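Onboarding guide, step 5: your first structure request.
Type a short instruction followed by the sequence, for example:

Predict the 3D structure of this protein.
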Amino acid sequence: MENDEKRLSQEDRIDNFRELLDRSVRRYGEREAFILKINHKEPAEYRRIIYKEFREEVDRLGTALTELGLKGARIGVIGENRYEWCLSYLAVTCGCGVIVPIDKELHADEVAMILNQSEAEVLIFSGKIFDKNLQDALKLNDTVRILICMDEERHEAENKEYFTIGELLQRGARLLENGDRSYLDAEIDSHAMSVLLFTSGTTGVAKGVMLSQRNICADIESVTQCLDNDCTDSVLSILPIHHTYECTCDFLEILYMGARIAFCDGLRYIAKNVQEYQPTILMLVPLIIENVYSKIMKQASTNPVKRAAFRCMLWTSGGLQHIGFKNAGRKMFRQVHETLGGRLRLIIAGAAAMNPKISKDMNRMGFKLRQGYGLTECSPILCVSRDTGNADASVGPAMPRIEVKIVNQDKDGRGEIAARGENIMLGYYRDPEATAAVLKEDGWFYTGDRGYMDKYGRVYITGRIKNMIVNKTGKNIYPEELEEKLMKIPYILECVVWGDDDAKEDDTVICATIVPKEEAITEKTRLSMEDTQGIHDLIWKEVKKVNKGLPTYKKIQRLVIRREEFEKTTTKKIKRYLSNITKFFTSGDGSDSGSSGKAV
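The system replies with structure tokens like these:
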């Protein structure tokens, strides 16, 4: 496979975030780093922050935090994607303490657990989320002694010191003017824990992942070598920034390359914000990409002639791209590009599996859709697909200076994905047993993901080992493999495949809980969404077609119709471990003959 990776010069190598900022200010000091909306009324008003100004604010805030006696402290940060979150993250890590990013969607007991377990002395928070939930979390915590609000609001803070970031910026400026260099001259241990992330994902068990600045910087360097981006690019930050995917790729890596960051006002404002900020790059999860794709296809399918013409254009564009006309899609689908701001050229999909058909069609429309694969424990990216040798079903080969292999392979070459490189975590916080279970002495990290590798070194993900169903005869069934097939049925919005070891049956019963896609059902059939039996029969007819291509032990034998969407993580993965899902799983009945399923 042709190598299209960029070379990394010695000057481009960084060991810590201070070096990252130094490099960016030196190269891009007068360029815009952030664009902030400061007035949501029409016409909107904006504040533009250049790299030099951002660095000055990092130093001011960091100096103030150090003067408060927080050198080496664990400092939590919680809030929506915003400038002050980014400012806090770098002010803490560039010479003060350890940052502990927290998901703003967590319940009070979960936030309290993270604060207690990390022994956080400080919580930096957005005034927008200082609600009863966060207040209850603080009541369950006995480690936090200082609260810092990202806004200028004053909140009740019983028995705690209280500051705003604005106050600390002024305080830091005065200290710097008076010659305080305690923060500026602080030594940074690039290989010590600097970021502590608590991640439960879809398993439900929270673990503290310890990352060093060198871990993350190594990943930034590798990502930069794989993608065609530079200081003229701009991004719209959409995904939750506490997550390593968004934080590393849409914040730190963007600063490293000297581009501009804007912040989305919320998921329902994506279309508006894309028009407003005209990003050239978007980092997304497949669910959002699929929603965008569905809207494009719906607009293109208002009548059979228009639908056929659009499909013909996709086929023609794909052919032209194949023979070297790389810009064919952009020219042929100019109207589609205009609806997405007019400048969007690169979309990175991560955190979940991407539908290969959607990936292929988006590429044919002239968007470079690239898939990435990684885990929080890997800072997070391990693999990313490239401009050349791209396969729509693959997450691409390993990035430069990262090794990936398949261990414990079966006869088909499928097994557990393992990785090794400077980006691999230090370990799980205060959990040597869990660390030893996944991080081997020779440096290989066992991901818990199952997959395979083709002859070009491209990696394909087939599922999580922990989700594997082992039937009564010892055969392995991977739910994700079946879910991928089911999701091609147009009437299905979401699905989860699971195994029921029914004592009445000779073998494990393979079941699927389905959330119907209301729009498709009402448009293409005469069924009402209240007609559970009719919807069951409609979908079961399609499931039987899927079953024809499966070996007997993998066939879906029971179907359960569910009205509510599944609860998801912040990166839109279904939380399989939830007890209410288990309850719903066991509440339906159906059979291979297509008998009734129960709505839940």
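Each response can be followed by summary notes, for example: The chain has three domains: 16-24+31-188, 267-465, 468-585.
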